[in-house]
């Protein structure tokens, strides 16, 4: 039974490694489609299939949407559980980090719109994502952005359901979570989406706290310490502590380049009280998305080269094709090469010419300006800021919390 | 109040795009065919190999447990274990479905988990014969998987201990879980929505809340029964809930269900064919009325037959034992 399934996929190179196992590229012999297979070790675990994997499978099976990663198949083989996903070329973190990429206001609008669409769909289906961050927003071959990594996602809907607050990487955690809220809703995902929005505008993580306390400090320094009128329930939260009052800054000074509509939406997503925070669906209906400029078509969005096939400036010199000219300020032309592994120029070239239209556009854009300067982080010994993920301490905490949580009946 | 009714409805909206609806709602003919096919396959295996037992590997792949050669060679046509008939399989499944509710009650699991486990169990035996996988093991697996899927953790060990079963069985089988379509829609939520809606509908007539509560309670018990019929494989949860509510209204005789149904349909589903819905409810009704709850006495002989299908050597032994006891009884006389 499972042999047939295994034969269906032709294994290729490793794409990366997550917490639960290796992800590799494969070709689906049945459809010719390129897929990514996440291999999760089962072993002789005391409790069978691990919860994270089970959650991801369970929810993704039900969530079919253009802005949600597609789980194509799931099958066990040789002591491993295999999850077959549609193949994605890159992720939003890579886009944000790539200094070689200029993001126009229309591009930013497009990326955040797709993020919110995916999120609104999840919420409509009563699913909280709980791990929204740029690196979990994958980008497909046609530029579509899709929510991925549903290992922390949960169903909500019962009003009295209690959850752990140890979710999200810290920089994306909503204030109610930082104050230890156990009953929370889709607002936590909206806050994280607001952080991603801000990150697209700033091209760096917006609120980079180095502890939970510091994270709240960073939030308050930006928006001002919340007054009880602004957020009446705050003082009842389990870990609430009084913070010294700070005034906060006008959004305009934090995001000098953003339009008024953009700032208006951003402020509604960054609302302290989760009850008055804008929902993902309402955010999509905000005038920001109908005012000019219209969001860029996904296929025309600037993207870094596909993962593992690192770009080399020489490649673009070989490229005889003329793409559309991209107007962008000269400062975007600083080329930053994050460390990547070996590449094959020929493969790269064919790839570029075959189906990555927008890379052609990018490189063409570069050629129209001054010569790109290579700025390699590894050469200068500086690295892009490392992002906190849910660290191991958090994870074990999380595990404990979740175990406790499982003791409680879920509903009824 | 309105929001709760709305909630029920929105959950139904999710149902329309669910794997539950897309892959696990069948026609009566579908079901018949599936049961027949599974039975036929197991029978053939029995004829060819003298056994039907499937082994489950840690990763969920299956293989036939080949009997020892001597057992196979010795097995001439007449001493071969007899295969179960489809009706016998059905009775055995019914027995274990009742057991699922028993076990879940014993662990005080919420109704949702009970329903999820039952649906997993039903789905599993659309693909396999009880001769291939012993329903006792599958029952445990389904309960365990349901707990896990509903994020209500209970350890396999604990579950095994609670019912004196080897928990390794549970884990070995976990991967069988049904093509990973783990989210199932039970009728309890929908029922809650309808009861709240009903309360609103009768508001001005001041139906006492105790009456409504006992109406709701007995409707839940009706759902419990419906869950053990084939109806959950044939009808969406909303229709199961309505059928249960109608049965409950018939018991209590205080609420005019027909009047409510008419008003509910005209308010919420003006396009929905009333007659179609009534036909579904009638079918569900018949199924509940015919529902069997076999006792262990009823299934004892089937279970014995099953044992020898799964393990032919036990068949031989039991024959010998019988033989010996006959001899000894002769001696006695
Ligand atoms: N659908 C996909 N297409 C292409 N590459 C993918 C896909 N999914 C995952 N990857 C690659 O595999 C890597 C590991 O993914 P995975 O989701 O297991 O872990 P992660 O997100 O990196 O870490 P964590 O488990 O902490 O969330 C990713 O970083 C990415 O490079
Ligand atoms: Mg990730």
Automatic annotation (TrEMBL), chain A:
<feature type="compositionally biased region" description="Pro residues">
    <location>
        <begin position="292"/>
        <end position="304"/>
    </location>
</feature>
<keyword id="KW-0723">Serine/threonine-protein kinase</keyword>
<dbReference type="InterPro" id="IPR000719">
    <property type="entry name" value="Prot_kinase_dom"/>
</dbReference>
<feature type="binding site">
    <location>
        <begin position="15"/>
        <end position="23"/>
    </location>
    <ligand>
        <name>ATP</name>
    </ligand>
</feature>
<feature type="binding site">
    <location>
        <position position="39"/>
    </location>
    <ligand>
        <name>ATP</name>
    </ligand>
</feature>
<keyword id="KW-0547">Nucleotide-binding</keyword>
<keyword id="KW-0067">ATP-binding</keyword>
<keyword id="KW-0418">Kinase</keyword>
<dbReference type="InterPro" id="IPR017441">
    <property type="entry name" value="Protein_kinase_ATP_BS"/>
</dbReference>
<protein>
    <recommendedName>
        <fullName>Protein kinase domain-containing protein</fullName>
    </recommendedName>
</protein>
<feature type="region of interest" description="Disordered">
    <location>
        <begin position="290"/>
        <end position="330"/>
    </location>
</feature>
<dbReference type="GO" id="GO:0008353">
    <property type="term" value="F:RNA polymerase II CTD heptapeptide repeat kinase activity"/>
</dbReference>
<keyword id="KW-0808">Transferase</keyword>
<dbReference type="Pfam" id="PF00069">
    <property type="entry name" value="Pkinase"/>
</dbReference>
<keyword id="KW-0597">Phosphoprotein</keyword>
<dbReference type="GO" id="GO:0005524">
    <property type="term" value="F:ATP binding"/>
</dbReference>
<dbReference type="InterPro" id="IPR008271">
    <property type="entry name" value="Ser/Thr_kinase_AS"/>
</dbReference>
<dbReference type="InterPro" id="IPR037770">
    <property type="entry name" value="CDK7"/>
</dbReference>
<dbReference type="GO" id="GO:0070985">
    <property type="term" value="C:transcription factor TFIIK complex"/>
</dbReference>
<dbReference type="GO" id="GO:0045944">
    <property type="term" value="P:positive regulation of transcription by RNA polymerase II"/>
</dbReference>
<dbReference type="GO" id="GO:0005737">
    <property type="term" value="C:cytoplasm"/>
</dbReference>
<feature type="binding site">
    <location>
        <position position="38"/>
    </location>
    <ligand>
        <name>ATP</name>
    </ligand>
</feature>
Automatic annotation (TrEMBL), chain B:
<dbReference type="GO" id="GO:0051301">
    <property type="term" value="P:cell division"/>
</dbReference>
<protein>
    <recommendedName>
        <fullName>Cyclin-H1-1</fullName>
    </recommendedName>
</protein>
<dbReference type="InterPro" id="IPR013150">
    <property type="entry name" value="TFIIB_cyclin"/>
</dbReference>
<dbReference type="GO" id="GO:0016538">
    <property type="term" value="F:cyclin-dependent protein serine/threonine kinase regulator activity"/>
</dbReference>
<dbReference type="Pfam" id="PF00382">
    <property type="entry name" value="TFIIB"/>
</dbReference>
<dbReference type="GO" id="GO:0005634">
    <property type="term" value="C:nucleus"/>
</dbReference>
<feature type="compositionally biased region" description="Basic and acidic residues">
    <location>
        <begin position="297"/>
        <end position="316"/>
    </location>
</feature>
<dbReference type="GO" id="GO:0006357">
    <property type="term" value="P:regulation of transcription by RNA polymerase II"/>
</dbReference>
<dbReference type="InterPro" id="IPR031658">
    <property type="entry name" value="Cyclin_C_2"/>
</dbReference>
<keyword id="KW-0195">Cyclin</keyword>
<dbReference type="InterPro" id="IPR036915">
    <property type="entry name" value="Cyclin-like_sf"/>
</dbReference>
<dbReference type="InterPro" id="IPR013763">
    <property type="entry name" value="Cyclin-like_dom"/>
</dbReference>
<dbReference type="Pfam" id="PF16899">
    <property type="entry name" value="Cyclin_C_2"/>
</dbReference>
<feature type="domain" description="Cyclin-like">
    <location>
        <begin position="98"/>
        <end position="179"/>
    </location>
</feature>
<keyword id="KW-0132">Cell division</keyword>
<feature type="region of interest" description="Disordered">
    <location>
        <begin position="297"/>
        <end position="333"/>
    </location>
</feature>
<dbReference type="GO" id="GO:0017025">
    <property type="term" value="F:TBP-class protein binding"/>
</dbReference>
<dbReference type="InterPro" id="IPR043198">
    <property type="entry name" value="Cyclin/Ssn8"/>
</dbReference>
<keyword id="KW-0131">Cell cycle</keyword>
